[in-house]
Amino acid sequence: MSENVLLQEQRGRVRLLTLNRPQKKNAINDPLWIALREAFEAAAEDDQVACVLLTGAGDSFSAGVDLASFGATESDQPHPFESAARAVAAFDKPLVAAAKGVAVGGGATVLFHADVVYAGASFRMRLPFAALGLVPEWASSYMLQANIGAQRAAELFYTADWVDAARALNLGIAAQVLPDEQLLAHALERAAVIAQWPVSSLREIKRSLRMHHNSAIDAAFVAEQAAMARQAGSPDNLEALSAFFEKRAPKFD
Asked: Where are the alpha helices (DSSP H) in the chain?
C-alpha cells in the first residue's frame, strides 16, 4: 500500500490539508510534491472550498526537501517541485497555515504564500540555502522581503539563522503564536470565519491583494530556477551535502 503523504479533510467550507510524513518531520518527497499540486489545483476549482488550511502531522510542519529522495526523478522529466510551488502561488482563495516545530527550506518558504500564518510555541524556522551552497526557491527571494522588508529578509537568507516563534511574530512572518496544543483548533476556527463569506468575494479580495505582486513572483520563480541550476551540483553544494550526511562542519573555499 502506498504512503498517504497528504491527508485531506473537508471541514465545512474549509479544506484541511495535512502533510503526512511525521516520521520524516514531513520532509517533502516527490509523491508529496505531486499530491500538493493536485490538492491545490482541485481546491481552486471546487466551489465548496472557500479556504484552505495547511498544516503538518506530528511534531513539525516540514523539514523541507527530503534529501534522501533528491534526484529520484528521471533526469529527462521535470522535477515536480516547480509545478507544486506554482500551484500554491497561483491559488486564488485564502490560504491559512498552522505551523509548529521545524519549518526548514521549502517547509518554510511555502509559508510565505499563506495569507495568514498561525505558529505554535515550538515553531522554529530556518532558510538554509546559503549553508547548502544553494539559492532560495518557491519565489521566496521576493515573497519574504515583500512580507517583512528587504533588510530583514536579507539577514535571514545570508545568515541561515534559526527563527523562533517569538521572532517570527515580531518579524510579521506569523500573525499569532499559540500553545502547540491549541494551534490547530484556533487555526480551524479562524479559517471557518474566513470561509463563511462568498467564494466569489474571497477570490476577488485575494486577486486584489496579489495583483501587485504577480509579475514579481513569476520573475522570482524564473530567476531562482536558473540560479538553482547553476548552484546544484556545484563544488560548494556537494561539500555542503557531504558535510550534512557526515555530520561535520563544511569547508568552503
From this structure: 30-45, 80-90, 106-109, 140-148, 150-159, 165-171, 180-195, 199-210, 214-231, 235-246
Q: Which is it for the CA torsion 207, 97, 4, 89, positive or negative? A: positive
Rounded to two decimals, the pTM is 0.95
CA quadruple 193, 197, 199, 203: dihedral positive or negative?
A: negative
Range name among 48-57, 116-125, 159-168, 240-249 with the lowest pLDDT average: 240-249
140-174 pLDDT tens trace: 999 999 999 999 999 999 999 999 999 999 999 99
Task: Report the b/e string of 189-203 with b at 16+ CB within 10 A.
Answer: ebbbebbeeebeebb
Are the C-beta atoms of residues 177 and 120 closer than 8 Å to each other? yes
CATH number given to 6-181: 3.90.226.10
CB 34 within 8 A of CB 178: no
For the chain, which residues make up each domain, given as ranges? 6-181
> Where do runs of H (alpha helix) occur along 18-95?
30-45, 80-90
